[in-house]
Design goal:
271 residues, alpha/beta, Rossmann fold, binds hypoxanthine, Pur_Nuc_Pase_Ino/Guo-sp, Nucleoside_phosphorylase_sf
Length: 271
Amino acid sequence: MIQQLQESAAYIQAHTEGFAPEFGIILGTGLGALVKEIEIKYSLSYADIPHFPVSTVESHSGRLILGTLAGRNVIVMQGRFHYYEGYTMNQVVFPVRVMKLLNVKKLFVSNAAGGLNPQFNTTDLMVITDHINLQPSNPLIGKNIDELGPRFPDMSDVYDEHMIRQAMVIAEDADFDLREGVYASVPGPMLETKAEYNYIARIGADAVGMSTVPEVIAARHMGMPVFGISVITDMGTPDRIKKVVLKDILDAAAVAEPRLAMLIRELVRQQ
Ligand code: HPA
């Protein structure tokens, strides 16, 4: 595994003239527009990078983008890998581990999620303050890769407090309500039943989605500070459950996208 990670990292370095990314960004469903804010220096197709999984979801394009955002060097995953696509957890988190080998200092993750907190509305942004892993596995199962991190990594403070506070101030200055809450990750790909939405809300989640937690676990295993944010694309509270169609999720994500792009840009600027 380490050797594969090193070969991927070496390929990326060789094809980007030694460009040194400081921050990693993973863009979720329909949130690709942050890319427009980036001064792109290099764009690599996942298919060309040795050992990289290849994205299969239509709404995700599989490219690794290296460039500058607010004057800082970033590496951006345009399209991520989901457990429900059939990848192993190690494949899902492979690019995050490669980022670490490229010396990336902090990780920013976004996703689309169903809202469970009755105070939320579709198109809201929610800063992730903690998570609940409801996926049937995680990327640390199996022999520990000691070069990456410890066997039993702490998970008591997963999401960086300082960046959460910075995000709240940025939102306040820009005059929009930024929610905070707990993100539960389910395997998918089916959406939740009414009973499942109810259950996930009762165990303490404010939002539910099908990604993010594996990558965050891998990042924290390696000691990388993480900032996570969800776009609430539909509501799973008992009185507001509607039949979810992908188009509605993408439309809601598109409404939130400019705010999300601004937030990540300003947050990166402040690191
Ligand atoms: N549930 C799970 N994943 C999701 C949802 C949801 O309601 N909305 C967007 N991703």
